[in-house]
Amino acid sequence: MAELRFDTRKIKAGYSPADNNQAISPPIYQTAAYDFRDTEHAQNLFTYKEAGYLYTRVGNPTVNYFTERVKALDGAKNGLAVGSGMAAITYTLLNLASKGGTILASPYLYGGTIDAFDRLFPELGIKIKLTDAVLDPEKLEKELTDDVKAVYVESISNPNAYLLDIDSISDAAHKHGVPVVVDNTLATPYLYRPFEHGADIVVYSATKALTGHGNLIAGLILDNGDMSLYTKERYPQFYEPIVMLKGKAPADIFADNFFIFRATLVYLNLLGAALSPQDAYLGIIGIETLSERVAKQSANAAKIAAYLESLPAVEWVRHPSLKSYKFRELAEKHLTNGGGGVLSFGIKGTPEQEAAFLNNIKLFHYHVNLGDARSLIVDSPNTTHSELNEEEFVLADIPKNLIRISAGLEDADDLIADLEQAFSAAGLL
Q: Which residues are annotated as modified residue N6-(pyridoxal phosphate)lysine in the UniProt record (predicted)?
């Protein structure tokens, strides 16, 4: 059979009814642990001579079906589902820099990520350097010293919808033996597939557009299966014996999967941010409508962006669909399925008028999630990115008047009418 296309994979990939009593929908394996057939089976599982399930914290069939489906959509070779997007980010970077070192990071990131970079990672001996050199590969190369363990970026950034040139970033990083980690949360594999642009690792907050209904918290770590970049000199942790492996190293056990294997064995196992089987099941169901949801969200966001750009009450608008978009050339080349559901704009008014505008919204939900079937609105500098200091606000290009919209699946004209009445109520029209 020929390779299945995207919309078939989102329904079929990673699951076989024949392995599950012919159940069409993947069962929820609601169990904490799994019986061993005998002592030999137990020993084989604990020494990784045989694949199987031990304990749901580190492996569960429903969670595995969820992981396999996303792997198929992204073109990943290996994957791990965890309890949240922040767990995915944290486990990935700890795995890469467990011996210390520097992570070069885009400043155009989710506020919670920057907060972790400011507060958590330095406590663990990992230096995070936010750098706008991700916009200039030649400048980036100069920052890729021997101490750098990864370059970390978002494909489409939150909240500004910046679109980075992952191809150029990857080319620069690989010249210096450094992997590129891409948070693909806003784009999803429907709009953008980072592995096709040179990325080595992809992370998701699956809470957002990937599953799309605002009813679960989940994260994913995926890799491209190429372990050659992780040299013993720069990444000794993959080649050092671990007690649980009876004197063997992760690279000794799984030569083509030691990145995910170590993340599972050390971080998921010992820190324990496990994804529940119920949430994995909700994720599987959500993915089945990924294309339809994100296509309409992109179209709604484009229509809203065009409306906002026409208003005297709006200072600026950022969305890949606009001719004024800073990365228009990249968007036309890479975002052929749409620009995504997230846009931001600058309201031209006083802080009191901004508050009145938000307080008079009727159809949009005022909260901090993204990618929901419902349309969402929030003042990012005061909420999702309130952790940033003044220097970080400037570096991230987040003005104090920024409003972020995550377009949902409602009628775009109804959403525009809601915005219009809120502008009027705030005295901005």
A: 208
Q: How many residues does the chain have?
A: 429
- Write the DSSP assignment of 24-63 as a string of letters: SSPP----SB---SSHHHHHHHHTTSS---SBTTT--HHH
Structure tokens at 287: 């993915």
From first to last of its 429 residues, the chain has per-residue pLDDT tens of: 578 999 999 999 999 999 999 999 999 999 999 999 999 999 999 999 999 999 999 999 999 999 999 999 999 999 999 999 999 999 999 999 999 999 999 999 999 999 999 999 999 999 999 999 999 999 999 999 999 999 999 999 999 999 999 999 999 999 999 999 999 999 999 999 999 999 999 999 999 999 999 999 999 999 999 999 999 999 999 999 998 898 899 999 999 999 999 999 999 999 999 999 999 999 999 999 999 999 999 999 999 999 999 999 999 999 999 999 999 999 999 999 999 999 999 999 999 999 999 999 999 999 999 999 999 999 999 999 998 889 999 988 999 999 999 999 999 999 999 999 999 999 998
As a whole number of angstroms, the distance between CA 429 and CA 424 comes to: 5
The closest of 323, 305, 318, 310 to 397, measured between CA atoms, is: 318
CATH number of 6-285: 3.40.640.10
Q: Judge: domain 290-425, CATH 3.30.990.10.
A: no
